Amino acid sequence: MRDQFAALCYRWRRDRRTFEVLLVTSRESGRWIIPKGWPIPGKKPQEVAAIEAFEEAGVRGKAKKKPFGYFTYLKMLDNGERTPCCVQVHLLHVDEILDVFHEKGERISEWVSCVEAARRVREPELKGLFLSLQRTLSS
Fold it and tell me: Which domains are delineated in the chain?
């Protein structure tokens, strides 16, 4: 099992009563995911999550230190092999959206409701994290 770190990015809408979460597409299959990546030497997990959010979606914000949760999936490696990954997810409140970022043009990103995000992603545990966030931020 290999470790990865991810950012579950969210922003409050103008009415300040509702919020949206960010989904991006994977570069290989085009499936809906959240920004995530491999550990970076010398960086804390929440720092890696924030870096991935910027590189993959052009968003900046403060990632929470405490993990919001975890999900697992099978990662297709460049050599065609699949390896199981455990993804540690950190909430990231987005306060800046940039027009220029590393993977611009390589992915599609969309702001959606937690219910819509849960509908779009494949991983059951990630679906659960979106629904848990809906309950947490709506209360």
Answer: 2-138 (3.90.79.10)
